Amino acid sequence: MTTFELKRSILQDINALMDDEAAMRRISRYIRRLRNSTSTKDVAHEDMIPYTMNELHERIDKAEKAIIERNVIDSETEDAKLADFMRTL
Length: 89
Fold this sequence. Notes:
- The protein is mainly α.
- The protein is built from five helices and no strands.
């Protein structure tokens, strides 16, 4: 699932609950707790699993191949798609 698809899925799930005040309060509390308990520093530290040189080279090769095959989407395009989707809510 791409980041865009994940964002879209989360927003659709929240949108389905917009009329349920109790659910919205629970979501709001959860988001506040999540935001307070997870600082950027903590997340970065937990996700810092070192790559072997072979894994790093494989990732680079895969990325270069995707670029050559034009199988990539730049962040501006993704942001525009998300903005378009948000306008439909």
